[in-house]
Design goal:
- The chain has about 375 residues and is of the alpha/beta class.
- It has a single domain, classed as Aldolase class I (TIM Barrel, Alpha-Beta Barrel), CATH 3.20.20.70.
- It is about 45% helix and about 15% strand.
- Helix 2 packs parallel to helix 3 and helix 10 packs across helix 14.
- It starts with 8 loop residues before the first helix and ends with a helix.
- The structure holds flavin mononucleotide.
Length: about 375
């Protein structure tokens, strides 16, 4: 048995030195986090098949095969309609409301391809092709938020691939464990991205108690070593972190957005369904403020709302307008205050957690 309080069963399962999972869309961050002792999960939900293949190869060339891929695959992905066909079904009232926001805030038209249209959650064929690509690639871990189709669990099990399910409620955790999830990410309300209504401090011990056999990974607002130490005390086997890495030196987040994140506090984020149709924590922006104000039309369900939003987001990003841009950011952003190398971020989180846990032992 290791004397290191940070050596948990998650380290043994994932083959990492630290019980820290780094979720990132940036392959440079994934490589640096792995070298720093974390386990990296690369978010590929918005990438084309060629991009997924290219990214897996790029990361593998640098650190070998021990990393994971995250896809967002709602269990009830819509029919086989193309994103264009789905877009054409958006009600005129909603299109007009979106156009009004674009006019009011002077949102430029996109100059690049609209990225959200590639999302696997839009279309069963895209989702299936993404899954096949990732399974074929031989990565040892696949993570999914918002559920996943049954065949993914079956095929992952047959190939010895470990499945991580991100959940925002205990009933979802029980259902995903029943389907064969090997690890559960108990993600609190504090988290960046799609998230439920229960805070990290409540959901982590609740799920850990409900599923004592399954390693539970705490997520949501975890940006310091104190958060890591607290997560272990709450019954988690480790932490899953996203916001923490967005402003790292290696991160490819637009420097304009990095600046906003470095200056932001938790209350500058909002948990809004206006981006994707499902509650998602992001930095406040005109789109979230207007849709969430009184008088807005009822929000559409995913993927309709997501496709409706995609033009605004792409226009804002292409024009690099800080007043319009947004990003998924969690409430722990208060502690993300400087641009540092990934290795320094991981080391200070681990050092602080060991220090805090050590002081308890000394008492
Ligand atoms: C910029 C960004 C994009 C995200 N995109 C995804 C995604 O595509 N798939 C996913 O499962 N989770 C996604 N998440 C959520 C993370 O996996 C993670 O659960 C969350 O960041 C944890 O909360 P924290 O940011 O407070 O650490 C995203 C998070 C961030 C910060």
């Amino acid at each position: 048995m290791s004397d290191d309080p940070l050596h948990t069963r998650l380290c043994d399962i994932l083959g990492s030195e630290l019980p820290i999972v780094c979720f990132t869309h940036c392959r440079e961050v994934a490589v640096a986090a792995t070298r720093a002792g974390c386990f990296a999960v690369l978010g590929e939900a918005l990438r084309s098949m060629e991009e997924i293949e290219r990214d897996i190869g790029w990361v593998r060339d640098r650190i070998g095969s021990n990393f994971g891929i995250d896809l967002v695959l709602p269990a009830r992905a819509p029919r086989d309609a193309t994103p264009e066909e789905i877009y054409a079904e958006i009600p005129a009232e909603h299109l007009a409301f979106a156009e009004d926001i674009e006019a009011r805030f002077d949102v430029p038209a996109p100059t690049n391809e609209v990225v959200l249209r590639k999302w696997g959650g839009n279309n069963q064929k895209i989702a299936r092709a993404q899954i096949d690509m990732v399974l074929e690639s031989g990565v040892p871990v696949i993570a999914t938020g918002l559920g996943a189709p049954d065949f993914l669990f079956d095929e992952a099990r047959a190939r010895g691939v470990k499945m991580i399910a991100l959940v925002g409620a205990t009933r979802q955790a029980l259902a995903q464990a029943e389907r064969g999830a090997d690890m559960i990410v108990a993600q609190g309300y504090d988290a960046a991205g799609h998230t439920g209504g229960v805070g990290t401090f409540s959901i982590v011990p609740e799920i850990a108690a409900a599923l004592p056999e399954v390693p539970v990974i705490a997520a949501g607002g975890i940006t310091t070593g104190r958060h890591l130490a607290a997560s272990l005390c709450l019954g988690a086997a480790g932490v899953w972190t996203g916001t923490l890495w967005l402003t790292s030196e290696e991160s490819d987040v637009d420097p304009i957005v990095k600046e906003r994140i470095l200056a932001a506090d938790g209350d500058e984020t909002t948990r809004s369904a206006s981006i994707s149709g499902k509650t998602m924590r992001v930095l406040r922006c005109p789109w979230t403020e207007v849709w969430d104000a009184e008088g807005a039309p009822d929000l559409l369900k995913s993927p309709y709302q997501m496709l409706l939003t995609s033009r605004y987001l792409q226009g804002a990003n292409d024009a690099r307008r800080p007043d319009l841009m947004t990003e998924a950011v969690g409430q722990g952003v208060h502690f993300v205050r400087d641009e540092r190398p990934v290795a320094a971020i991981a080391a200070s989180m681990a050092d602080q957690a060991r220090d805090v846990l050590g002081r308890f032992r000394a008492r």
